[in-house]
Amino acid sequence: MTTLLLFLILYFDFRLRNYVNIKTDISKVPLLFIQWYFLPIISFLFSSLPALDTHVRLLLGKKIEYKVTAKVK
User: Fold this and answer.
1) Is residue 12 one of the residues assigned to a domain?
2) In whole angstroms, what is the distance from residue 19 CA to residue 54 CA?
3) Domain membership flag for residue 27
4) Closest alpha carbon to 64 in 51, 52, 54
5) 3-state SS string for 13-39
6) 73 in any annotated domain
7) How many domains does the chain have?
8) Whole domain around residue 24: which residue ranges?
9) pTM exceeds 0.70 for this model
10) Contact, 19 vs 38, CB < 8 A?
11) Interval 7-64: pLDDT, tens
């Protein structure tokens, strides 16, 4: 089901590029499809990196520090 929706997004992206007259070089079209395909994986990695960093610090026995910035009036 997810792959079907991904292909639907690819189709709409391709159609909207033609509608808005964005000229895309034919050699870059495979890269456009690859970027949409890897978007969920990259989003997951970047959203979980802070948690992974924190867990590794706790496993290694390091302190977790929170730096609070002072508000300027």
Assistant:
1) yes
2) 45
3) yes
4) 54
5) HHHHHHHCCCCCCHHHHHHHHHHHHHH
6) no
7) 1
8) 2-59
9) no
10) no
11) 888 788 878 877 887 777 777 778 877 887 788 888 888 889 888 888 999 999 998 8
